[in-house]
Amino acid sequence: MGTVLVAGAVWRFGRGLTVGAVVAVAVVCQVPGLTHAPITSTDAYRYVWDGRVQLSGHSPYAQVPLDDTLAKLRDPILFPGLSPTQKSGVTGVPKNPAQLPVDDARTRINRPGVPTIYPPIAEAYFTVVALVTPWSAGTLGVQLAAALIAIALTWLLAVQDPRWAALWGWSPIVAIEAANAAHVDVLAALLIAAAVITTARRPKLAAILLGAAGSVKLLPLLLLPAFRTRRPLVALSTFIATYLPHVLAVGILVAGFLPGYLDQEGFSDGSSRSAILALLLPPEARQLTAAALAIALAALAFHRTRRDPIALTCCWLYGAALLIATPTYPWYGLPLIALAVLAHRPEWLAVPLAAYLAYASFGHPTRQGLIHLAALAVVVIVITLRRRIVAKSGLTAPPSATNTDERDTTHRHRDLGRVRRTASG
Fold first, then answer.
1. Is 10 in contact with 337 (CB distance < 8 Å)?
2. Of 105, 135, 166, 219, which has the maximum CB count within 10 A?
């Protein structure tokens, strides 16, 4: 409800907002989260550990937090029940990591018996933060870094449109998941937004940014169909290039615990995901249906991006992907909030909001499915009403700054083509 109230207030009273005002309030919104340890998850402790491990010359893809060979890296904040001189009994990577428990009372790091799941750009980010953060600060370093990224993205969005940017910078979801929980998804959101904004004037740079976003969290790669011509190849090349140093260092171990994580979380077989589909289909049919829907949406995005603004295509493609997979972790929706701002489509804010309600309903799959279904209903109803209003009035929605840039670039290319044809004739 907090996000909805912020959206309504900003839209009603925000006509006179300036870039400075939006950013200033965004700074204030981030401060409370820094005063408390992460609330919504323990991921930040893994971030701190991964950065510390890399600074020590080891690889988080090849060693697990409980590994006794890394005992000297333990401290009372990350390992309240295990000192550097105590033995955990763990050495090397376990043979069946997916069968290990998620938590261990000796440490605050989740899944301490398995390697990391995070891609290389995320790992590089953790390392940089660890380099400038003393051990005694615990998670404060990654919390502060996430808050600064959220503020930077607020500025980037405010340059496009201050009023719309407030929906990101002042969002309670962003305040909780950035400054408090320090989720790395905020970095992915920044890179995605930068890719969308720069795609008209510097398409290769935009593709590189998208590939880098995919190397923070894999989900941004879902946006590849929205980037036309050769851009997906550049994005994929960037993504692959980030893995090469780690492949050379640890080989196939570079996959970390990602396959096991996908299995544990139900992404591999659809047994505990696709909450909306679960209301109608048995487990064995969900994965096939979800895959078919994903392929259809990708094809539609590739087709529509030739006529629609890329911000709009990315927004509904990312939002639809979340509605299909329905991850219960609300921080997965951070990039969608940024895309909704760029596309001027506030109805998609219902999706991350629904994820929060579903997160609080853990263990109640039917309730979770109904919550996500309600978000889908909000999106469909608003889109339908908007189309009817536009059809009756004969008006079109005003383009965002990124949309205008893209259309201007298209017109410039057309004009240049006419000049060339005239000269050759």
1. no
2. 166
